[in-house]
Known about the structure:
alpha/beta
Amino acid sequence: MRLLKKIWTLYFFICFLILFLILYxxxxxxxxxxxxxxxxxxxxxxxxxxxxPITGLYGKTEYEVPLDSKATYIFTPNxxxxxxxxxxxxxxxxxxxxxxxxxxxxxxxxxxxxxTIDMPVDRSSKEGAxxxxxxxxxxxxxxxxxxxxxxxxxxxxxxEMRKFKLGPFKLAMEYGLDIVPVTLPDNWKRMxxxxxxxAGSPGKMRMYVHRPIPTKNLKPGDEVRLAEEVYAIIxxxxxxxxxx
Length: 244
């Protein structure tokens, strides 16, 4: 059974690569102009929508309340699996810029996005962090939503979340933007991040997008309480959806 799961993982990444190479010319064209970035993101979503059914993955997204398609948000999902990146890009219709660790830029497939739509975060240095948040400010000033995994990476005790970093919450408060917690309850089962070739498996990949949390009336120092509130919301829903 474990061998079959590893074979499925290899099959997934082969499909991932083939579909990306087919769509690559479209990404190159659409990422040449900023006003085309939403279309490039839509193509990225189309890529995922092709990939998931042919590899046996079944996505389902539930919104607690409808989101305003014209509003700027900061999305904060839990992060337990490499599949989280595929999931948020595929299953969420809102256009956003993705903030992720700098190490992802080492993968040639992702580099084209981190030079344009998305932003790498170098957490190993203060200068890297300052650069990332400078870019984040520019995106927000342009009215582009951000998606940030506040755990800062996949922790060693999945499915227990790591303590949230405060960056996305400070940004939301500075701009008076709503924070949108996102619960991803299944991805850690589909692709555990514990081996070079994980024993992955097809199946459901649910996403629950919570009610936006306003930040306009918060003051400096409230980011700690806000992070704790978002953590509790995601944790409670995660346990509920997994029957824990």
